[in-house]
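Q: How would the structure tokens look for this protein?
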Amino acid sequence: MPSFAASAPAAGELEVSVAMWGALGALVIVMLAADLVLFGRGRHEVSLRASAAWSVGWVALAVGFAALMWAWQGGEAGSEYLAGYLLERSLSLDNIFVFAVIFGYFAVPRAVQPRVLAWGIALALVLRLVFIVAGALLIDSLHATFYAFGALLLFTAYKLARHDDTDIEPEHNPALRLVRRRLRMTADYHGHRLTVREAGHRVATPLVAVLVVIATTDVIFAVDSIPAIFAVTTEPFIVFAANAFAMLGLRALYFVLAGMMDRFAYLSYGLAAILGFIGSKMLLVDLWHPPIWLSLAVIAGVLVVTILVSLRSTRPGVRV
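A: Here is the predicted structure in token form.
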């Protein structure tokens, strides 16, 4: 059996020190803090114009980091990051639909939603970092992990194409059940507050339950997206950076797309095609080594075609 270094996709001889990891972690924390403090601040609803501007800004930052990777580690590392970012960004579109379901189930006030999403995304990033480290260790120690990940992605693609993916039902979330059993919780929201004092006791607000469901539900998506990006690169630094930038821009993007989610009629087919391609690539890791630009072209091409066809077919007066 070929060795891991010879057969698996890799970011060349990328050497990342502890200091570089620290710098990336500090950058993510600063961006999370800036997003939390500046975007959707106050108690007013976020406007579409502000959300669109922030979305463009996050994409610009992500592309700027790609340029930094390109200058720092060369074109291969920069291309792998860019392909990984685009893949994670594409798969994160499903998260937006899930956010809408969760907010509807808990009747979260719209003015509170930006703060909830910020903390939920921060928790999700921590959980994803755990997944990334575990996945990297598995791949590094067991070559067959590529085949297992590939089979998982093909199965997920099949479910997406058939619309057999499991519906998100917050009331069945085990973590939510545990929180409700262990914590006293108010019936009503109290602005952005996670806890309040009632009758001399500190009790949780429904926002705690919402945060738990958002963060734990993202684990379900990480099971698909983390294995998928390992088909692009096995360098944990690049994998986490791509995930971080994709997730950081998700909050603003939600408020751009929240009112038009029914327009993406064929999104599941597009994601199924992307996951099918990535899964096949992983299964053929010992036989086929496509250039990184091909992965980037397939992901971008499928996503653009899917969105355009969806928007065109759901125009007013057009029968699907």
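The two ends are 49 Å apart (CA to CA).

The mean pLDDT is 83.

Upvote if useful.
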